[in-house]
Here is the input.
Amino acid sequence: QVQLVESGGGLVQPGGSLRLSCAASGSSFSLYAMGWYRQAPGKQRELVARLTGGGTPTYTDSVKGRFTISRDNAKNTVYLQMTNLKPEDTAVYYCKQDRGPRGYWGQGTQVTVSP
Here is the structure.
């Protein structure tokens, strides 16, 4: 079984920073793309950032220049460094591994940006 465990969420003020981590179990971590998604109340889940096994990142327009996705294959971990956070970034953030027919999801971690 593949398990993904997110951590690092919390409450921050606008303009603040936060670093999310997602630790993955299972073999061959470096072969799979990893993604960060978020879902705000009343909204659809959206892709925030994605990183291929080869290290090619993709970001949604609203976070470009503020968020950075990275991975440490030796630790089976993907990160999302978030800077200059805005209230509209408030959401539950989910980690996903592009593995198997439907992918694997973590349980989510809450990020709240509020004064």
About this structure: The two ends are 40 Å apart (CA to CA). The chain is about 0% helix and 50% strand. Residues 66 and 112 are 16 Å apart (CA to CA). The mean pLDDT is 96.
